[in-house]
Amino acid sequence: MSNSINKPPIWFWIVSVIALIWNGLGVMAYLGRAFATDEMIAQLPEEQKAEFLMEFPAWYTAAFAIAVFCGALGCLALLIRKKWAYILFVLSALGAIVQHIYLFINIEMDGSKMVMPVMIIIVCLLLIWLAKNAISKNWIN
Q1: Are the CB atoms for 139 and 12 separated by under 8 Å?
Q2: Rg of the chain's alpha carbons, rounded to an integer?
Q3: How far lies 86's CA from each of 23, 39, 111, in Å?
Q4: What is the pTM of this model?
Q5: Segment holding 27, helix H or strand E
Q6: What sign does the dihedral 53-55-61-67 (CA atoms) show?
Q7: Exposure winner among 47, 90, 124, 138, fewest CB in 10 A?
Q8: How far apart are CA 121 and CA 100, in angstroms?
């Protein structure tokens, strides 16, 4: 078995950076929700205010945190070419799926509100595929 590492194509770097930005936005969303003060919530429009005042179970918050932080760390792992990116992306996807199943069951959503949750899950699955593909092509070790 060879431990040689191949040079990834330029698109790999571009996708990895875009994915890091995407997951960075997820981290910011989590931190914004976790550390929102009453004064900050009071300044929001009514619809957003209602979302912030909803009580979520602790496991939902944990799934949200796992999804965004594992996703961001997975992107960093891709950029430093480490194959543990795959495991981080699997954990991220599991967190996102658990989080969004809860939302789908407990919150009434019309078609337009379903777009972002579905897109998040699709991106998670694509990042798993990217990491697995990068491992099989020896772009990351």
Answers
A1: yes
A2: 17
A3: 15, 40, 31
A4: 0.88
A5: helix 10-34
A6: negative
A7: 47
A8: 8
